[in-house]
Fold this protein.
Amino acid sequence: MDGELDDLRAFAAVVEAGGFTRAAARLGLAKSIVSRRVARLEASLGGARLLARTTRGVSPTEAGAAFHARAVRVLAELDEAREEVAGREGGVAGTLRIAAPLSFGTAHLAPALARFAAEHPRIALDVAYGDRLVDLVAERFDAAVRIGTLVDSSLVARRLAPVRLAAVASPAYLAVRGTPERPEDLAAHDCLVYSAAANGGETWRFRAGRSVVSLRPHGRFRADNGEALLAAAVAGLGVAVLPTFLAGGALRSGALLPLLPAFPIPEHGLHVVRPPGGAAPARLRALIDFLAARFGPEPYWDPCWGVAAADGADAALSAGPKGRASGRR
């Protein structure tokens, strides 16, 4: 029985990864073992051809696609059954594969997951940190932590906490260049630009009463990582717009100063998303509940001024337009 299940898992991994090499890496096995298991599965089905090689890799045949759909359901039901038995025997158990953004992940999620793992010794965690937008279904992730506006999709989402951004600069920079009083003043300043923003460039948005002022920042320092922009801002290289989960410590210490308090930046969200299809497994529900309690409803990293400014702006802009998040950093 275990051998048959191993063959099913190998076949499913090849289909979802699009090739034997990537499937082997995902499963932690040699490519030859994965190939042998798929061949054994095809032989057990009377020699049916389940996979076809293409210029792009490996794809399922018509029979393979139909068999894959059933195999995924069988494997999922088996995992749920095992989880239910394990839960009755002493708490949630199983493996969770999670994708997380790089900067937020290393600064805040990693310590939270370490605490969660300590509290749930029967759960194994496999976490991928990076700013690439993963395909949860194709890459077999159980969930992903995402920041910003969620695109329309079939994914199931839960909001964990607000994500606030602030325009900041160092006291040394402001002493030389002056303090901007309105968003338009930033055109005369060195701006630190997030180069990995979607749609070809970063846009900064500020609330001005019931309107939103948008501008494209320009400057000589660009980076595709929020921590690099934070370091540049602290070093006095210019004005940055950073999430408070990154800049909170520097704001509290005075290494950075908040700018344009009368023009707050529209709030974004911190979410957990998971693939569609029924209720989440108990181990995933436990993780999501843990993260919601850890990060929300008011994040521990937000300075008091940031919460007050955001609350006041929300009240003033109850019917106004909203900016689109970049889902970054």
User: Anything to note?
Assistant: DSSP finds ten helices and 14 strands in the chain. The chain has three domains: 2-86, 91-163+269-295, 165-266. Residues 91-163+269-295 form a domain with the D-Maltodextrin-Binding Protein; domain 2 fold (CATH 3.40.190.10). The first strand starts at residue 51 and ends at 54.
